[in-house]
Structure formats: C-alpha cells, structure tokens
Amino acid sequence: MSVWPLRFAETGNGDFLFSDEAGGFFRSNDGFLARYAYDDLSEWDRVFLTGRGHAFCEEGDHHYVGFASRWAKRQFVPGPLDYIILVPTLRCDLACSYCQVSRANENARGFDWDEATLEATLALLDGLATTQIKIEFQGGEPLLRLDLLNLVREFCRQRFASAEFVVCSNLQNVSDEGWTFLAAPDTHLSTSFDGDAPTHTRQRTVDPRRTDKFLANLERAVAIFGPDKVSALPTIDPNHAPPPETIIASYSRLGLRSVYLRPINYQGFARKRFGRAGEDGWADYYQRFIEALIRYNADAAAPMEEYYLSHCLRRIFRGGHHGHVDLRNPNLLGADYMVVDFDGILYPTDEARMMTRIGQIDLSIGSVFAGLDRERVAALNGAADNNFHEDCTLCVFQPFCGVDLIDDLSRYNRIDLPKHETEFCRRHTAIFRKIFELIYRDDDATRRSLAAWLDIPVFDPALAPVHG
Ligand code: SF4
Q1: pLDDT in tens, 426-454
Q2: What is the per-residue pLDDT for 95?
Q3: Residue 189: CB within 6 Å of ligand 1?
Q4: Ligand 1 atom at minimal distance to the Cα of residue 396
Q5: Which residues, 6+ apart, have CB-to-CB distance to 458 below 8 Å?
Q6: Ligand 1 centroid to 389 CA: how many Å?
Q7: Distance CA 361, CA 355 (A)
Q8: 391 pocket-lining for ligand 1 (C-beta < 6 Å)
C-alpha cells in the first residue's frame, strides 16, 4: 500500500489536521503522526487511509483513479472568455474615503468611453467564442452612462444565447430610467453598504442626508427586485467597524441573507490614504463576525452567511468550486475574465487596473483596439499556481487555497516573498483555521450554520472524519 503525501498542522491538545493534495482531510493525534513519519503504520491506520482515499494498493486501481479524479477537480481549468468587467466611465458622484478605484469627478471630461472605444468593445464582445456572457458594469458610477449600458446590454442580448448583467452602483442617485434598467430580469445590482448609517456616512457619503437617500434607494431595490437580485458589501476597517451584530441586524432588516465582508483593499485611492491600516485586527474582527453569525443563525428563520467563508467552506468539501476569481488554483489571468477600462485598455483584474492607474506598475494586457497581448499575459501567469511552491506544498490548506499575484505585487512589489509573510497567506490561513475549528466543533448551533453555508439539509458529524 502507498499513502499519498499528507500535510499536517497542529490544532491544539496534541491533535493534528491532515490533508492530501486531492483535498481529503481528517483529524488525528501525535501518535498517528509519529507512525506516519517513521513509516510504522498500524493495520488500523492502513484500513483507515485506504478507506478514506488517502492511499492506494497499486497504480491504476480504483483508489488511485479516484484520487487522481479528485485532484483534477481541484485544479482550475479556464473555459472561454465569458466574464467581462466594463468601465464605461471613471466619473462618480461620490468620493468615498475607502474608494479602491481611481475615480474622476462627476463633471470631469475625458473619462468616458468615446465612440471608437464603444465600437471596439462591441467588436471584442462579438469576436468571443462563448455562447453565454456575464457583463459587470463598474466605474466610477456606471449609471451615469445609462446610454452606454443600454447599448451594450442590447448588443449582448442579441449576440449571445444567454447574457447576464451586474451593475455595480453606489445607489446614491438613481433616475427613473436607471430604475427601469435595473428592473430587467437579466440584470442584477451590487452596491456597498458599510453596515450602519454612521459608518456609511463617515466612509462614503459624508452627509447623513445622503446616507438616508442611499438607504431609501437600497430598501426600494430590495423591495422591488427581491434579495436574490441585490447584493451589498460592507467595506470593513476593523479598527472603526460597527459591532458584528449591528451589521447582521442591518442586513437582515433589509432582507439580505448574504454579507461579504471586504477588508480595505490595498489598492487605488484607499492605498494612498490608508496604507495597510486594514490588515491589523482583520482576523480578530472576522472571527467575531463569524461567531455572531452562528449565534444569529441558531434560531433565525432564514440563516445568513458571510459570502467568502461559505466559498472557502465549499472549496473544502467540493472539488470544482472555482466560481470566485479571487481564490482559484491555478489562478490564470487574462483567460476567462478581464476588464475593459474607460479608455479601452484591457486588464486582467480590476486591482491590476487600479495599480496601473496610480502608476505603481503597468499591468495592462492589451486594448480593445489592438487585442490581447499574449506575451504579457504569459509573463503574468508564470507563477499562477500553488502546487509546487515550496511553502504551499507543506501547507495543510493547499488544496483549498489559491494564489493572488496581483495582491502580492500591490502590497510588496514582488511575488517571491515567503508565503507566510504575505497578507494573502495570513488571511487565508486564519480563515481555513477558523473553518476547520468549526467543522470539528461539537455544537448544534455551529452545525446548523455549516449546513446552511454548504446548502445541505444537515451537517452530519461524519463529515468531520477523525482517526484515533
Ligand atoms: S498561500 Fe499560505 S495558506 Fe495558502 S496554500 Fe500557500 S502557504 Fe497555505
């Protein structure tokens, strides 16, 4: 019998978490660790490891093929380019203190698509190999150019068999035409709400009357379109954030069931103004938020989730869960999604666009006029996976984790730091540690939340395997 390589990490009280490269995991103790390390496995160890898919008898047997299949599902293989973020204008009618993007004043000139950029963008869309498309309108405030949004949407509806649209709006000023645009069944709304009115005012609107107007618009959007069509994200400065219970109550009152806590991004204007302020205290705040959610869900008729935690949890239990572009492995850039800026320049991600805008490094990968610069894309993707990184290969969380080269470049101007010195690694180590602590917690309320976040009826304790 051969055992696939196991990674391990201490979880306390002499216990260890073990995982293999295909994402199988279990908890055991230092006795098993010693037997594994010294190649002195007992018969019971062998039965357990083979039965759980951590070992095989001979190459090509069903244990071997099963492992290979699970491993393959853990690898992200990009499909055709079918997710495009469009920035038809950089102009915005707010100047949020935590704005990630390099926005321009509402009345500024030269920050919108011109006729040639619009035409070239439509030509780029027309040339795509896909039959389904997802378009995300960003800005600036995209509703300032409803005319462009309408043109793109009409074009896509006719060109593709299926088309889906997301408008990322500050929802501060919405015209009658804007409400009509958002009401279409294929169009979703994404906005930012920082958890309570005082925080939203401090971080975004400056004036409480503007916050009231925003909240009225958000309530109207949820009431008319329903919570499935509206998402809102709070940007959290852990040193000045509302208590977790306040955010949960605010979102619950609005009828929203998913909260995606965003740290202050180390990008764009936020980087210039706040530096790394958001890194300190994040893990502590995040953990308190998750515990507050579990308490809330214990007797809530409709449980709530923190979106990113649910995503990481699902990546632990399911191979092939690659739907979030910030956490994939390999995280190949310039493949299945990209950004078209206000001037027609292409970027692999919105963060890459921001870094280029503030002059840190040019991460553009072509333009709608000249097409994709495949050499630049290939250069960016030179280290896009964690399978062979000397730190990640020893990490018990590797099969569930990913890579974010743009974040590393943004924070450290390099991509070769030891992983544990990067914010990406620290944040994901904390999240995965927390999730495994929850998975092995003997508590009904926690299991109720885990079931809701995994979208399964019951979280059976057998989902948390232990080898004694
Ligand atoms: S980035 Fe950090 S947490 Fe993720 S696999 Fe690598 S070492 Fe582990």
Answers
A1: 999 999 999 999 999 999 999 999 999 99
A2: 67
A3: no
A4: 8
A5: 447, 451
A6: 9
A7: 6
A8: yes
Ligand 1 atom closest to residue 394's alpha carbon, by position in its atom list: 7
How far apart are alpha carbons 464 and 468 in whole angstroms? 13
Q: Is the CB of 149 under 6 A from ligand 1?
A: no
* Cβ neighbour number for residue 7 with a 10 Å cutoff: 18
The pairs formed by 56-65 with CB atoms below 8 angstroms and a separation of 24 or more are 56/1, 56/2, 56/4, 57/1, 57/2
Q: pTM to 2 decimals?
A: 0.92
Mutate to test the pocket of ligand 1, among 312, 403, 428, 436 (most ligand atoms within 8 A of CB): 428
CA angle 34, 35, 41 (to 5 degrees): 170
Q: What is the CATH code of the structural domain delimited by 83-375?
A: 3.20.20.70
Residue 440 alpha carbon to ligand 1 centre in Å: 21
Confidence tier at 98 by pLDDT (50, 70, 90) = low
Which residues in 50-208 belong to E strands, given as ranges? 55-56, 83-86, 91-92, 104-105, 132-137, 162-168, 187-192
Give yes or no for residue 422 CB within 6 A of ligand 1. Answer: no
Confidence of residue 270 (pLDDT cuts 50, 70, 90): low
- Whether 315 is in the pocket of ligand 1, judged by its Cβ within 6 Å, is no
Q: Where are the domains of the chain?
A: 1-74, 83-375
